[in-house]
User: Which sequence fits this backbone?
């Protein structure tokens, strides 16, 4: 984030180990506390971007709606909320959802749109979280993913009649929401 010229960075995590790791990596403004309590102390319209990776799935539906209202409040108008959540449509949805006893929810493209609308956000983009090539091993993973997911998408399209390229098959989804 600093390389992209974001200068006022704040981190929040309930895990003391994760907070210590972030501080070890040079991030000073990191807080060890529940996200709801942290957000309650933040003034309105404070942030241009909030990144919520692997957070939303840990809330019950009523608690998630309350969290989304708090996130909406602290974001500036047209601010972005970037989320990373388990993909309920994906091939390994059960593995991710049931792989962590604290997961309450998994999301689909449709449920993310419903959540966004209920919290006065609009969805800018939803996409799969696919392997990224940054070396030979990860390039091989990416190639296997592309070939394998081709056939899985073909099967999904045959079953549902849905667009071939539309079906996200990855374990997780990335979404960008915009505050209305």
Assistant:
């Amino acid at each position: 984030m600093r390389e992209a010229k974001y200068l006022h960075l704040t981190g929040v995590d309930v895990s003391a180990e994760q907070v210590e790791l972030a501080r070890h990596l040079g991030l000073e403004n990191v807080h060890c506390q529940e996200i709801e309590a942290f957000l309650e102390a933040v003034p309105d319209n404070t942030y241009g971007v909030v990144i919520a990776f692997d957070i939303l799935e840990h809330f019950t539906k009523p608690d998630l709606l309350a969290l989304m209202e708090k996130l909406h409040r602290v974001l500036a108008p047209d601010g972005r909320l970037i989320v990373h959540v388990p993909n309920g449509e994906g091939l390994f949805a059960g593995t991710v959802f049931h792989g962590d006893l604290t997961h309450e929810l998994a999301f689909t493209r449709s449920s993310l749109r419903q959540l966004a609308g209920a919290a006065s956000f609009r969805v800018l983009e939803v996409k799969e979280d696919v392997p990224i090539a940054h070396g030979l091993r990860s390039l091989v993973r990416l190639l296997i993913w592309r070939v394998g997911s081709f056939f899985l998408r073909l099967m999904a399209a045959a079953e549902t009649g849905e667009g071939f390229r539309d079906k996200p098959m990855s374990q997780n989804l990335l979404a960008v929401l915009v505050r209305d």
Remarks:
- The chain has a mean pLDDT of 93.
- The chain has six helices and six strands.
